Design the sequence.
């Protein structure tokens, strides 16, 4: 059966059901996937929690179905609270989702529903769908290497790499090169990390395939390894944002004035600084970062989002993070600070020379795809592993490690933006940008993988 025939049952379009995890780094790739599947002819239904709910008016082409999560209170800040919150969302949504999904299946008729694509952190939703005989696929929003680390976790415990010992941080993990112990996935305590990873692996195991936001030219060896280790199909269809550039899925309002500010700067002169949607820093690190940026003399665009400084959050100062006295005067005319940026457009802007990032997987791929080299300051989760690949494998950036000191920050910024090895990193990032274009172009590896994904969805 060809795509067009398969996409319509009794004259109606096939439905794909999507359930993103309600955090920015997970919402963005799921909405990109929605755009891709919608363009291929699927009708899209998005389930969502009340927590971080999307704005349906920004996506009139999709149907939105809220699933009560019973949560109240502010969003969690510390990473261990985020992980507990993910477990709580699973537990709270399970029963309501069962009823809502059953009603949707009646409404659409069962054979009009191709499958559910759930975020890898939503095991309970995968289980609910399986019980109702709805095929599932899992979207993993991290790298292929990171998912191999998830799969290998029990082995790494057996072999004594984990729980992490401070004295072993530099030990190479020979089972998972190029990771060292310090690069392994970590979210709070060892037990919490182990529980989270087992939860995600169980979701993938229960599904009919895993979709990864990565691409062949970036992670060929890692994808081959995953395909050897998994009996399920693996669809490497990334970088998703290159297929579906406009998403409107930002939870915070983007300050677009920074694009005009960039327009007035000379090409390849500006450092873009952003630590994503969750990473927090101490007030001390904020001060060192600020003075390092100031004394580098390099023009900058810095995202200081509400809640960036942990202490300010504890004191309920979620609306503003105060930069040190004198910083604004010292950098006037040379930099701008916003609370949230249209990041992809910023990275695409010719004025941007480098990106100081926490190495979330979305930020890392967005930077690579625009040929922008990176200063890496990973905080938790998969960020250390991503930074390892940036520095050691792709050689498109380097880590600012250890205790943050303004002198080291200043030197690192200069090295990246004006140094000769920074220029080499930029050239290599430019090669990856070309490779990403080829993979996502007509008959490129990711384009072909999307075709296979659609066929697979229609065959389930
Ligand atoms: N982002 C943005 N504006 C900002 C900072 C981040 O739009 O000022 C977007 C960024 O483009 C990326 C996402 O937020 O798609 C962050 O995801 P990532 O995986 O990099 O980090 P996380 O927030 O999950 O730690």
Sequence:
């Amino acid at each position: 059966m060809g795509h067009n025939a398969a996409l319509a049952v009794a004259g109606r379009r096939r439905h794909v059901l999507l359930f993103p995890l309600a955090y920015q780094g997970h919402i963005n790739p799921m909405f990109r996937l929605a755009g891709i599947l919608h363009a291929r002819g699927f009708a899209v239904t998005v389930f969502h929690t009340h927590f971080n709910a999307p704005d349906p008016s920004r996506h009139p082409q999709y149907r939105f179905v809220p699933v009560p999560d019973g949560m109240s209170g502010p969003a969690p800040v510390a990473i261990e609270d985020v992980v507990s919150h993910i477990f709580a969302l699973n537990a709270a949504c399970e029963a309501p989702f069962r009823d809502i999904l059953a009603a949707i299946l009646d409404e659409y008729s069962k054979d009009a529903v191709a499958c559910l694509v759930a975020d890898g952190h939503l095991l309970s939703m995968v289980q609910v769908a399986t019980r109702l005989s709805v095929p599932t696929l899992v979207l993993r929003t991290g790298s292929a290497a990171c998912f191999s680390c998830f799969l290998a976790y029990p082995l790494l415990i057996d072999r004594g790499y984990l729980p992490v010992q401070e004295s072993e941080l530099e030990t190479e993990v020979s089972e998972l090169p190029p990771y060292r112990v310090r690069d392994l996935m970590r979210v709070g305590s060892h037990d919490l990390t182990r529980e989270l990873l087992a939860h995600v692996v169980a979701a993938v195991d229960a599904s009919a395939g895993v979709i990864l936001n990565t691409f062949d030219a970036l992670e060929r060896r890692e994808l081959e390894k995953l395909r050897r280790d998994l009996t399920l199909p693996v669809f490497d269809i990334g970088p998703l944002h290159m297929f579906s550039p406009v998403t409107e899925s930002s939870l915070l309002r983007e300050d677009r004035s920074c694009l005009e500010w960039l327009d007035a700067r000379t090409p390849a002169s500006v450092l873009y600084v952003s630590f994503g949607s969750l990473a927090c820093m101490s007030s001390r690190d904020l001060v060192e970062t600020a003075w390092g940026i100031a004394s580098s003399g390099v023009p900058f665009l810095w995202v200081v989002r509400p809640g960036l400084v942990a202490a300010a959050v504890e004191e309920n100062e979620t609306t503003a993070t105060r930069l040190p006295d004198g910083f604004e005067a010292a950098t006037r005319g040379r930099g701008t600070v916003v609370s949230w940026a249209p990041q992809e457009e910023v990275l695409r802007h010719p004025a941007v020379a480098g990106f100081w990032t926490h190495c979330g997987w979305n930020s890392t791929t967005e930077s690579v795809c625009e040929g922008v080299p990176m200063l890496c300051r990973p905080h938790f989760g998969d960020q250390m592993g991503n930074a390892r690949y940036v520095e050691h494998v792709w050689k498109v950036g380097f880590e600012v490690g250890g205790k943050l000191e303004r002198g080291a920050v200043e030197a690192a910024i200069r090295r990246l933006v004006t140094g000769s090895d920074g220029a080499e990193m930029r050239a290599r990032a430019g090669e990856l940008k070309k490779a990403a274009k080829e993979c996502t172009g007509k008959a490129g590896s990711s384009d072909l993988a999307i075709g296979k994904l659609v066929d697979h969805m229609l065959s389930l």
